[in-house]
Automatic annotation (TrEMBL):
Source organism per UniProt: Streptomyces albiflavescens
Transmembrane domains' residue ranges: 15-35, 55-73, 80-101, 121-141, 153-171, 177-196
Superkingdom to which the source organism belongs: Bacteria
Name of protein: Integral membrane protein
Keywords, comma-separated and alphabetical: Membrane, Transmembrane, Transmembrane helix
Keyword Transmembrane in record: yes
Length: 255
C-alpha cells in the first residue's frame, strides 16, 4: 500500500488532489449532518445570522475556494502551502456544492425536489475527481519498467475507448450512465448500445423517421423510470435528507 501510494500519489504530485477530495467529501458529509440536525431541532447547532440576514454556508465556501485556489496556483505541488491550499479548496468546494441548487435557481430550494441537484452534483464531482486521482498513468512517475509502460498504455487505451462510448451514451440522454461509465468499464458500452431516451439529441436526429424506434424508446424510458425512480429517490434521501412537502414547506427559512 505504501509503495502504491508513493508511486501513484506522492511522486506524481497528486497528494494535494487527494487532500482536496478527502476534505471535499468530509465537509459535505459533516455539513449535511449538521443541517439535518438543525432541521430536526436537535443538537447545539443553529442558523448563522448577521443583522437578521441568514448567511448560507455557500458564502464561506466561496471565500475558502478563493483563498485555496489562489494559494494553490502560487505554490508548487509539494510542500505545506500546497497541502493547506488543497484542504481549504476542498472544504470550500464541499460547502459551495452542497448548496449548488440554491446558486443554480437563485432561490432557497435546499429542502425541495430541486435541491436534490446538489446531491447529484456532489456525487458526480467526487466520482470524477476520484477517477483522476486513481488514474494509472500519472504524470511525473519515473523509472517505469517495460511491463508497467505496457500496462499503463493498455489502461489509457481502454479509458479512451470507454470515454467515446460515454459520449455516445450522453448523446442518447443517459447522463448518469455516461458519467459513471467513464469510471466503471462496460457501463458506458451498455448505455451506448441501448435505445436513446426520448427527447435526446440522438433520438431527435436518428429516430425522426423511425416511428417504431420512437415508440420503443418511450416504452423503455417509462419502464426504466418506473423501476428505478423509487430506489434513486431513497438513495438521495439517505444522503441529503428527504425534501419537504411543497404544500407544507414554510415560505421563509429552510431549516
Amino acid at each position: 500500500m505504501g509503495h502504491w501510494l508513493y508511486r501513484n500519489i506522492i511522486e506524481p504530485g497528486k497528494l494535494p488532489l487527494l487532500l482536496a477530495l478527502a476534505s471535499f467529501v468530509l465537509t459535505f458529509v459533516i455539513t449535511r449532518v449538521i443541517v439535518r440536525l438543525i432541521r430536526a431541532g436537535k443538537g447545539p447547532f443553529g442558523n448563522v445570522k448577521a443583522g437578521g440576514l441568514h448567511i448560507h454556508h455557500v458564502v464561506p465556501g466561496v471565500l475558502l475556494m478563493v483563498v485555496g485556489g489562489f494559494g494553490a496556483v502560487s505554490s508548487s505541488r509539494y510542500g505545506f502551502g500546497a497541502y493547506l491550499s488543497a484542504v481549504l479548496f476542498g472544504i470550500g468546494a464541499g460547502l459551495v456544492l452542497d448548496e449548488f441548487a440554491l446558486v443554480l435557481h437563485l432561490d432557497d430550494v435546499y429542502w425541495t425536489e430541486a435541491g436534490r441537484q446538489s446531491v447529484e452534483v456532489v456525487v458526480v464531482t467526487a466520482a470524477l475527481v476520484g477517477l483522476v486521482l486513481g488514474g494509472f498513468a500519472p504524470f511525473g512517475v519515473n523509472d517505469l519498467t517495460d511491463q508497467e509502460l505496457q500496462d499503463r498504455g493498455g489502461v489509457i487505451l481502454t479509458v479512451a475507448v470507454n470515454f467515446l462510448f460515454a459520449l455516445v451514451a450522453l448523446s442518447k440522454g443517459k447522463t448518469r450512465t455516461a458519467v459513471f461509465g467513464v469510471i466503471v468499464p462496460f457501463i458506458a458500452l451498455i448505455g451506448a448500445l441501448r435505445l436513446a431516451r426520448p427527447g435526446s439529441p440522438w433520438a431527435k436526429r436518428l429516430y425522426r423517421r423511425r416511428p417504431h424506434a420512437r415508440a420503443r424508446a418511450r416504452l423503455r424510458a417509462y419502464r426504466h423510470d418506473r423501476r428505478w425512480a423509487g430506489p434513486s429517490r431513497r438513495f438521495q434521501d439517505w444522503i441529503g435528507g428527504k425534501p419537504d412537502d411543497e404544500l407544507t414547506r414554510p415560505v421563509t427559512g429552510r431549516r
